[in-house]
Design goal:
single chain; six-stranded mixed beta sheet; 11 helices; eight-stranded antiparallel beta sheet; alpha+beta
Length: 469
C-alpha cells in the first residue's frame, strides 16, 4: 500500500525535488575562510540557510546549530532515527564539459552539477522522503531528524560540534555512500616516517626522490634525480624495473645529472590493488641500481624492504591480518620525499576489526626502528566501526532495499570512512546502487541519475515509516 503511494507521490513531485536540488547546487559551498558566526565561510552558510528555508516551507521544525549543522524534525516526539547528510562540497577544477559546476543542468535523465551526487541530491531525497510521509498523512510515533552538515569534506568538525551537546538517536543512517548497507568501516593508521643522515658524496648517488601529495591516494608519478650514472647507463635497469612492476620509466640528462620519471596508476588507498604505486616501483628500481653505499641509500632500501611493490597487505612489514567481517588489512606507501640528508614518508593503513595498536602500530614501530626509520610517536590506530548485520536496524534497511529493488541485500565492509563512522549505531545507506553508472563524484561533470535518486527517496520514506511509525 505505502509503496504504491510513494511511487505515485514522487512521480507527481519529481520536478519539485529537482528544482530544490538545483537551488542548492547553485550555491558554491566548498569550505572557505571563516567569518564571524560562520565557521566554514559564506558558501556553506548560504547553502544551509537555503536548505532550512526549503524545509521550513514544508512545515517542518528547523534549527540552525551555529552554522555547523542544520536540523529538520518531523515532529516533537522522541527522536528514533537520524539521517545524516551534508551540504558542503569539494572544490571544483577546470575540465567541466556538460555544464559549469554551479549551473545545474538536467540532460538525458541526469542532473549535472557539483553536489548533485555528493551530497545535496541525497540530502534533498531524505527531506522529500519526510515530506512525502507528511503529505500522505502517515502517522509517526517517534521523530525522524534530518541533520545537514557543512564540513563533511574537510574533517567532519560539524557533527563533532553537534554531538557535543546533542545525543545520538538510537539509529542513524547517512545517504552518502553505497547500497545495500555499509555496516563495517575499517580502522585507520596514518603512518609518518622519517630518517636523517649525513650527506655522502660517493658516486653514484641518489640526489632526490619525490612523490605523492595526498596520504589516501596511491601516487601515479615519482621523480628521481641521480648523480654519477648517465641516462644510457640507467636504461637496462629501467627496463628491468618496468618488467618487474608494470610501471613506465623514462630518463633524461641535464646539468650533469640524470632525471628519472616513473609513471604508475593512481588509486584510492583503500583499494591499492587497483593501482600501480609509482613510489614502490621507483624503490624497486633504486634497489636494482649500482649505487654507492651510504646511510641515505640504505634508508631507501629499508623502505623498499618494508613496503615492496605489490604488497598492499602489509606482509613484508609484518602487519598482515584479516577477519571474516572486515576482510584483510591494506597498507600503502603514498608519500615519499628524499634529499641528501633526510627522508620523510607517509603510509595509509586501513585496518581490520582485529587490529590493535599492539599488533599493528607497535609492530611497525619496532620493524622500522630496526632498519633506522622512525615512526612518529603520535601515530596511533583510529578505531574501526561496526554495527552488527543481524541488528534490527540493519535488517530493516536490508528488507526495504530488497523490497524496492528486487535485489538481494547484504551488509558490506569498506576500507574508507563514512559520515557515520563515529556514531555508535550509524551506518551508510545509499545513494549509489551496485548497478549505478560512475557519477564522477568529486570530479568534473558530477551528476545524479534522477530516477535512481527518486527511488532512494521512496526507500528512505519506507525506512522512516518502519522505524518511527
Amino acid at each position: 500500500m505505502l509503496k504504491q503511494q510513494l511511487s505515485e507521490y514522487f512521480a507527481a513531485h519529481r520536478q519539485e525535488m529537482i528544482d530544490d536540488i538545483c537551488a542548492l547546487v547553485r550555491i558554491q559551498s566548498d569550505r572557505q575562510d571563516p567569518l564571524p558566526g560562520k565557521p566554514y565561510g559564506q558558501g556553506p552558510a548560504d547553502a544551509l540557510d537555503k536548505a532550512l528555508e526549503i524545509a521550513s516551507g514544508m512545515g517542518f521544525i528547523t534549527r540552525n546549530h551555529d552554522y555547523c549543522v542544520g536540523t529538520v524534525d518531523f515532529n516533537e516526539a522522541e527522536t528514533q532515527l537520524d539521517i545524516l547528510a551534508h551540504l558542503d562540497v569539494v572544490p571544483v577544477g577546470d575540465g567541466w564539459t556538460v555544464t559549469a559546476p554551479f549551473e545545474p543542468l538536467l540532460k538525458d535523465g541526469k542532473l549535472y552539477g557539483r553536489g548533485t551526487a555528493d551530497d545535496k541530491g541525497p540530502a534533498m531525497a531524505a527531506l522529500y522522503a519526510m515530506k512525502a510521509l507528511k503529505d500522505l498523512g502517515v502517522p509517526l510515533k517517534k521523530n525522524v531528524r534530518l541533520i545537514m552538515g557543512c564540513d563533511e569534506e574537510c574533517g567532519s568538525s560539524d557533527i563533532e560540534h553537534y554531538y557535543a551537546y546533542e545525543k545520538e538517536a538510537p539509529c542513524t543512517f547517512s545517504p552518502d555512500a553505497e547500497f545495500p548497507v555499509i555496516n563495517t568501516e575499517k580502522g585507520a593508521l596514518q603512518g609518518f616516517y622519517s630518517a636523517s643522515f649525513p650527506e655522502d658524496k660517493a658516486l653514484p648517488r641518489v640526489i632526490s626522490v619525490d612523490a605523492g601529495t595526498k596520504i589516501n591516494v596511491v601516487p601515479d608519478a615519482c621523480t628521481i634525480v641521480l648523480e654519477g650514472l648517465s641516462a644510457a647507463e640507467c636504461t637496462p635497469y629501467l627496463e628491468q624495473a618496468a618488467a618487474a612492476t608494470g610501471a613506465y620509466f623514462t630518463a633524461s640528462e641535464e646539468n650533469g645529472r640524470t632525471g628519472i620519471l616513473c609513471k604508475g596508476v593512481s588509486a584510492h588507498a583503500s583499494t591499492p590493488e587497483k593501482g600501480c604505486n609509482a613510489i614502490t616501483a621507483s624503490l624497486t628500481l633504486l634497489a636494482m641500481m649500482p649505487m654507492a653505499d651510504s646511510e641515505g641509500y640504505r634508508s631507501l632500501l629499508a623502505m623498499e624492504r618494508l613496503f615492496p611493490h605489490g604488497d598492499g597487505l602489509g606482509e613484508a612489514a609484518g602487519i598482515a591480518m584479516s577477519d571474516e567481517i572486515s576482510g584483510p588489512l591494506t597498507n600503502t606507501l603514498d608519500i615519499l620525499h628524499y634529499s641528501l640528508t633526510e627522508l620523510s614518508a607517509a603510509t595509509d593503513c586501513r585496518a581490520s576489526l582485529c587490529a590493535t595498536d599492539e599488533n599493528l602500530t607497535e609492530v611497525l614501530r619496532k620493524k622500522t626502528a630496526d632498519l633506522g626509520i622512525t615512526l612518529d610517536e603520535k601515530c596511533c590506530l583510529k578505531a574501526p566501526h561496526h554495527v552488527p548485520a543481524d541488528s534490527p536496524f540493519v535488517q530493516t534497511l536490508l528488507k526495504v532495499y530488497e523490497e524496492y529493488t528486487g535485489q538481494k541485500g547484504e551488509a558490506i565492509a569498506i576500507g574508507g570512512g563514512t559520515y557515520a563512522h563515529h556514531l555508535q549505531n550509524g551506518v551508510a545507506f545509499g545513494c549509489t546502487f551496485p548497478w549505478s553508472e560512475d557519477c564522477h563524484m568529486h570530479g568534473n561533470d558530477e551528476f545524479t541519475a534522477v530516477d535512481e535518486l527518486l527511488l532512494c527517496a521512496q526507500m528512505f520514506a519506507q525506512v522512516i515509516a518502519d522505524i518511527c511509525g
